[in-house]
Amino acid sequence: MLFNSFEFLIFLPAVFLLYWFVFRQRQLQNLFIVCASYVFYGWWDWRFLLLIAFTSLCSFFSGLAIEHYQAQRTMQKAVSAANIVLNIGILGVFKYYNFFVENLQQLLVTTLGYQLDFATMNIILPVGISFYTFQALSYSIDVYQKKLPATRDIVEFFAYISFFPQLVAGPIERATNLLPQFQRDRRFDYAQATDGCRQMLWGFFKKMVIADNCAMAADYVWATHEDQTGFMLLLGALLFTFQIYGDFSGYSDIAIGCARLFGFHLKRNFNYPYFSRSIPDFWRRWHISLMTWFRDYIYFPLGGSRCNRAKTFRNVFVVWGISGLWHGANWTYIVWGLYHGMLLMIYNLLGIKRTNQPAPFHIKLLQGGITFTLVCFGWILFRAETIGDAVSYYSTLCSSSLFDIAGSHDALKAMNFTKTPGLILMLVCEWMMRDRQHALAWKGTNCFTSKAWVRAIIYVALAIITMAYAGTQSAFIYFQF
What we know:
Blueprint: H1 6-21, H2 26-42, H3 48-68, H4 73-111, H5 129-144, H6 154-162, H7 175-182, H8 190-223, H9 230-261, H10 279-283, H11 288-302, H12 309-327, H13 331-349, H14 361-383, H15 387-397, H16 409-414, H17 420-432, H18 452-468
Helix pairs in contact: 1-2, 2-6, 3-4, 3-5, 3-6, 4-5, 6-7, 8-9, 8-18, 9-14, 11-12, 12-13, 13-14
């Protein structure tokens, strides 16, 4: 079920009313959340429910087994390792089997001249499998590391894994944050719920007005990139840059706001990343839940930055290679991940780890411009279907046609830029509210939004703009991951 669908428009109010006015006891609320979440997830394909239920069962019982063998560290390691292998194995089969088989076949032909016919499989990739798999893994690892006790309530655990606001595209929650919230009573908080609605409204605006409209123009450029000028390819790269931000951060805003309607606090997933002044700063602001997951469960166990420089760089490239592969079974994602690993290594060599110190405006502007350009350059790899397409795109982009605005006239005419003011509005609002949790998180009484009627007009106007200027309805980009 899509957030930006008519079905969800019916689903959410119905679940909200039943949750608070019918199922008032915590145990009943948790059970109801599981049922509602399975309806939400099974809306795409009911067969997906079997997989998420199996993953949940395995992780639930592995947690109990790890705690049961607390006096036998060897058994704990065996159980934890078995659960990790099982979950990664499931993810590997559904997401990476064909990718590895096809590349192995090509490698054997290229190096040994042997043609071995490995069977590929026509597998439907379950929506959000990477997200809930990582969430399940973090639970068993945290129990093993004694960061939290194993839960004995299977309903609570199933609710933690399947909680519908963040189920299919994050934020990737830790059991240490979300699971205890299912273990205590919840009371309706009007202020929290209304702020959640504001955050959802802003998320819908970013998805439906910004991302979906940018997508239509960016898709046109990418579909015809071999015939376009460098100027048009630059425009296409910029459009995709804002598309993926509006799409993914919009989803996170909707998910976090929706969770607040039910009394839950999800971790922040985006912190205005395009206002970053360095690549390290960008990755502290973009997809925060995934980056901290890789940091805590892969980078730190490898030694992090506590070892010598050579091993630190090795750790960086391992993490970013895995990060690229996590995003998709394609070499473009892997190279994109290694590209950012290389940038982080360069920043480390230059001694640039944080750029939040005070600086003149022109220095901040230069740092921000360099960072945005490097990120935008990387998104081309992320968007390309093959490495060859990316190379072709870069070649044209870096040619003299980059300045051929006149030759781009027909292509520009074919694209719809009537909704550009929406993008400007988003950037202005987020810049003004960059110290808040989201762009509609009003605080203080010394601004024009201190009046309730002013805020009400803004909400109504934003809702009207969202409905009037929405682009073609599309699934969220990160559903494929």
